[in-house]
Design goal:
By secondary structure, the protein is an alpha/beta fold. It contains 12 helices and 15 strands. A 7-stranded parallel β-sheet has the order 3-2-1-4-5-6-7, sandwiched between helices. The protein is globular. The chain starts with a strand and ends in a 6-residue tail after the last helix. 49% of the residues are buried.
Length: 374
């Protein structure tokens, strides 16, 4: 089967750092490994799927651009329409929108993967929408942002969503990672530190991780793309100053910038492998959590909040701890050695490997390919 995977214009697929484009590449690669003819449409710097095809699209380097996404359709329309299965993972889904309106006979091929709760979905009728978790589906069906019911509900991040989805129009397939790349140390050995990975956006919980490790008196490594981003002020707080102040009070916090390894993930993997646990005290209803599945694939337990999709990934007491308050976070850190690294790895391989996601996409395609286009 010929399959088109349309990624974003914002970053390469996979990106050097974080982003949904990591999953979009893994999905394309896993479909190619199942002997399908896969065509990936990605920004400069993207990788070609094994035995597949890579079609470059104009990159917008962090910015979301309707015009540039429209170009993808205009330039590659003929290539796209040759496909049996079109998976549009872009932010605005302009490819899917144009095909839906102007090539209705090909609309059955279309599947739209939402890139986040606040992504802009097509202005045409919702069509074969796929999200990564039950919570994600709940948010988009109810038309609320991921900050509903959180400390950030009235913040600048809280974006009103249009009511577009009915329950039966949204399908759930968990996101995935390459568990043949994200692997544990051979002997599952650990070093004496906890790890925080992500964008230092306020709702991602870096401040809570700092406070937690200070109180628990345990070392913390903070992995970010570049140290300069910590100099940005977020709601009156500079993380650089917060970390410096904590360390003068006896905290053991080390900021680690991403190594310039190919595609930037090798160094991150080493940190997962050696960490006692990943701390992810998010204060938003995360639609998914790629860093969580990367961590458990490396045998690294996760200590996370009880918001969003996180409890769908972390089973309390099995591959980490799900916490509702400061007391539970401290207890989780204290008892982290009770979590089996082998159990973490087993869950990641069985539920969140990219081959599992690929099979689920193919199964959904078979189920829906003859659905009447309305």
């Amino acid at each position: 089967m010929r399959i088109a995977v349309v990624s974003t214009t914002t970053y390469s697929t996979p990106p050097v750092s974080y982003g949904g484009e990591v999953f979009f590449f893994d999905l394309a690669e896993a479909l190619a490994q199942l002997d399908h003819e896969v065509h990936l449409f990605g920004a400069p710097g993207s990788r070609c799927p094994t035995n597949g095809f890579l079609h470059y699209i104009r990159g917008t380097y962090g910015s979301i651009s309707l015009a540039t996404e429209h170009e993808v359709y205009e330039v590659y329309k003929d290539e796209l329409l040759k496909s049996d299965f079109i998976i549009d993972c872009s932010h605005d889904h302009l490819v899917a929108e144009q095909i839906y309106w102007f090539h209705r006979e090909d609309a059955k091929k279309l599947f739209n993967v939402l890139n986040g709760v606040v992504t802009i979905w097509p202005r045409c009728r919702p069509w074969n929408m796929i999200v990564g978790s039950n919570k994600w589906k709940e948010l988009v069906v109810d038309a609320v942002s991921q900050f509903k019911g959180t400390p950030w509900e009235k913040s600048e991040f809280d974006i009103a969503l249009p009511k577009r989805f009915e329950e039966n129009e949204v399908h759930i397939i968990p996101w995935a990672c390459d568990t043949s790349f994200y692997t544990p140390n051979e002997d599952y050995s650990k070093e004496d530190y906890f790890l925080w990975v992500g964008r230092p956006t306020p709702y991602k919980g870096l401040h809570k991780a700092i406070e937690l490790t200070m109180t628990a008196d345990v070392p913390l490594k903070v992995l970010i793309r570049t140290r300069a981003i910590l100099e940005h002020e977020h709601y009156g707080v500079k993380y650089s100053e917060m970390i410096e102040k904590a360390n003068t009070k006896g905290a053991k916090i080390e900021v680690v910038e991403e190594a310039k390894e190919p595609f930037g993930h090798i160094f991150k993997r080493e940190l997962y492998q050696n960490a006692k646990a990943l701390l992810f005290p998010s204060e938003s209803n995360e639609p998914f959590g790629l860093v969580l599945i990367e961590a458990i694939a490396c045998g690294c337990p996760v200590v996370c909040s009880n918001l969003g999709a996180l409890p769908e990934i972390i089973e309390n007491g099995v591959n980490g701890f799900v916490c509702a308050n400061d007391e539970e976070y401290l207890e989780a850190v204290k008892n982290i050695d009770s979590i089996s690294s082998e159990s973490c790895r087993k869950i990641a391989v069985e539920k969140f490997d990219r081959s599992v996601a690929a099979q689920n996409y193919l199964s959904l395609y078979e189920k829906l390919k003859d659905k009447e286009v309305v």
